[in-house]
Specification:
The protein has about 160 residues and is an alpha+beta fold. The protein has 4 helices and 9 strands. A hairpin with a 4-residue loop joins strand 7 and strand 8.
Amino acid sequence: MCDYSLMTVPNRLAANGEELIVHRFQEGSLGLASAFDLRLSLELRSCRPQGWWSKLKEFWNPTPSTIQAVCIPPGSRLLIRDLPPFLQRESGLQKDSGEAVFTQITAEEHKHRDAVCFRNGAVVLLQKLAEGQRVRVLSVSSEEEQQTLPEYSIVMPVR
């Protein structure tokens, strides 16, 4: 649902139709965050004092992030938008957007496991998506739905 690297970040489950953004969290890992939460955070940050003293205090005593990681269950359908050209080549997509199924490629500890599987079978780790990329949740699956999803072969495009 949420990559191991985001376990220290407050999180919640995605909702159908929700707009998400690929975001780099304070821990350094990429994950999905609500577009609304990111906009709100940016607006709040612009209201803070911008002097050098304020920046120095913020550096030594950072404000905890209020941005939650949005977790997606395996089997959920997503529309991935704004695919950069290198990712289009790697995944074999002709357009800058594509429908994908959220999956986990491993159960090993301390390995990134969250990925998206496109219709052509290409699997891309969430960590390979571009920061700022837009994702729309088309449907959040349930345990019963996951059992009826077709099997995808994991094809990792070579760079």
